[in-house]
Amino acid sequence: MSQRLDLPDAEWRGVSRKYSVVEVGGLIIFGVIATIATSIPTLITSIQWLAAIPISLAVIFLINIALTPRRVRAIGYMLREDDLVFRRGLMFRRVVAVPYGRMQLVDINRGPLDRAVGLSELKFVTAAASTGVVIPGLPEQDAEELRDTLVALAESRRAGL
Amino acid sequence: MSEPVEPAEPAPALELSVPESARRLADGQWHRLHPATPFLRGGIAFVAIIGVIVVNARDVFLDTLFGGGGREIRFLERFAESSLILLAILAVVVILLLSVGGFYLSWRMHTFRITDELVEVRSGILFRTNRRGRLDRIQGINISRPFLARLFGAAKLEVNVAGQDANVELAYLGSAGADNLRLAILQLASGTRAAEAAAAASSAPAGVAGLVESRVNELLAPELDPNAAPPESIVRISIPRLIGSLVLSEATVIAILAGVGIITTVIVTGEYGWIFALLPGLLGFGGYLASRLTRSLRYSIAATDDGIRVGYGLLSTTNETLPPGRIHAVEVSQPLLWRPAGWWEIKINTASQAASSSGATAKTTLLPVGDMSDVHRVLQLILPSLADDESRALLEAGLAAGAHDDAYVTSPKRAAILRWFSWRRNGFVLISDAVALRKGAIWRSLVLVPQARMQSVSMHEGPLLRRMKLAELRVHTVAGPITAAIGALDRADVVRFFDEVAHAAVHAAGVDTSHRWRSSSEDAAALAEPGAEEVSETTAAAEASASPEDHA
Predict the structure, then answer these.
(1) A142: distance to nearest CA of chain B, Å?
(2) B462: containing domain
């Protein structure tokens, strides 16, 4: 397998390893629900081959869970002089660069699983919906610091729409 | 230059009339709308109902006087004989008074004001609404004159600010007042301070502002429809081209195919019921044609000092002014059937989106149909930085037929599996201060994104692209019909371009001052220069094209 899409000489800041717990937790919950829901037809009708659906679903979720630590390590962000660069994805890699001045607002979200391990998710919103910079798995303290840094940087480089 | 001589004569008159009325409306105080507003905003139905009642009453009256009349009339007579008539008349009178009062009140309560910073509208009797728009976020000012409003000499002024359906609507104003008010708002928004503007206007109408005012005044001269055919419109859509562009559209082909299909079915099966299956499609097709037609009839596009003015419409006219730097992405595209004729279409993304889909299409189609020279003129107008020869050559390469081996960085040969016909065309380049993405061999298009408007840039790869060492590049802009994305490019190229674009975007955003496009004198000079040149150039061109005709 050839090397993944990346920026040359980039120093990525990773997210907390604990974020794997959140991801795995979410995957387990959804995996169990989906597997149970799709196995209902087999149990009711007792048609053997219908069992293929929940089994394949369970396998997909298991592979996903196994890959989670690597996927979490693939998430990275970088504060360059004038822009924020964010990268994520193993199979489908995405690298996005947003100038600080383009910031419209910064969101900090905490889901129940995030709260359990003390993490936050930071969302950088621009005027373009497709920008989609959501940095998950930041320790609460870091998230708030990063938010303040970003707001300050955006303020000093304010641009129009 | 003949320009400064021209406004010298009518100057004193305009100096008093135009800025005076406009300044009066834009002085920061609360003002009311056109008195006919309630009727234009839906009171027409009310007038019609009253009309019907009056006509019927007259019939009854005449019939009772001269005898005769049918069964209904006799019923009414019996009804009239009873004492109920008094109550009924009373009720009608009360309802009439209430509605007139309500209309009057709603007109009284509907006020607007324009300050240096914002435009604000208050309306409603029971449910009060208050809407403010920031002037430095103006994305465009639209003046539309629906047919009925035109009869009353009224116009609707819509100030579009950035956002989904975020428009401050001043409906209705006096027709001439609307034009002046737009000018005044644009001047306030451009960063020319109100005091400065006033001083400039009162001392001498010299310079650019005076020129614009005189231009507007000239345009206002034909009383009914001032902007119908501005003398400096740089593109004219002739009727044959308009009809040709509609006939040669893909919608027509689909409609014909559907028609042929249905007729064959009818002939084969002998069931005439199938014909009704055509109806919904026919209605949709008719609607599509009608919307394209209204968009293209009496179309005009021209440079003013406060942006581009686009006007269209035959009975209901609309004309919109887009201040500089409000266009976030441009796409020049060519439907397959237009290729023999060499016609192109230009679409744009702007930060303000209309709620209705038909309004949105109308707004985002900047040039409904035009040939190559029209396209270049319009592109020069909306992206003045691409006016030099080098950029022009790149733009031409971006639109030309067999374009390869040029400045565009195109897909490698191995990408031919993903881009069968277009891999040689599929490419990107930085033109001056815009990103250009060239795509498609069958449906050709060229997407241009000004770097100063770019929100962010991203690169993508999936499992397939990775295996082929390819990647996709996307430039993010505000939502609109254009998605600036280009796939199946060499990975190294994409990474390099990503970096280049990211840096260029930061730089461009830093030097961009178009949200207050005339704020500081230096920037104003730099920004106004191309615009001013544009005007004189186009008028010169118009004169040049007009003079031979005059002589002939």
Answers:
(1) 24
(2) 326-511
DSSP string, B442-456: SS-EEEEEEGGG--E
Res B186 pLDDT > 90: no
Task: Domain count for chain A, please give it.
Answer: 2
Tell whether B457 lies on the interface with A, counting CB pairs under 8 A.
yes
Domain-terminating residue out of B220, B252, B272 = B220
Q: Is the same domain home to A87 and A46?
A: no
Looking at the fold, whether B167 and B23 belong to one and the same domain comes out as yes
Structural contact between residues B346 and B375, judged by C-beta atoms closer than 8 angstroms: yes
**Model confidence at B16, in pLDDT bands (50, 70, 90)?**
very low
Q: What is the dihedral of CA B171, B176, B181, B184, to 10 degrees?
A: 170
| ipTM confidence | 0.89
Backbone angles phi, psi at B157, to 5 degrees: -110, 125
CATH of the domain at A102: 2.30.29.30
What number of residues does chain B have? Answer: 552
C-alpha B20/C-alpha B73 separation (Å) is 58
Look at chain B and report how many structural domains it folds into.
Answer: 4
Is B538 within the bounds of a domain?
Answer: no
- Are A95 and A120 contained in the same domain? yes
Chain B CB contacts of A160 under 8 Å are 136, 325, 509, 512, 514-515
d(CA A133, CA A148): 16
pTM for the structure as a whole = 0.78
Higher pLDDT, B545 or A19: A19
**Domain assignment present for B140:** yes
Q: Is residue A11 part of a domain?
A: no
The alpha-carbon gap from B455 to the nearest alpha carbon of chain A, in Å, equals 6
pLDDT band at B486 (very low <50, low <70, confident <90, very high): very high
In a shared domain, residues A82 and A57: no
Tokens linked to B113: 């004001």
For residues B185 and B167, state if they share a domain: yes
CB count in 10 Å sphere of residue B240: 8
What's the Cα-to-Cα distance from A54 to each of A24, A28, A48, B146, B457, rounded to whole Å? 19, 14, 12, 60, 39
Cis peptide before B172 (omega within 30 of 0): yes
Chain A within 8 Å of B456 (Cβ-Cβ)? yes
Query: How far is residue B221's CA from residue B376's CA, in Å, rounded to a whole number?
Result: 31
B378 with B477, same domain: the answer is yes
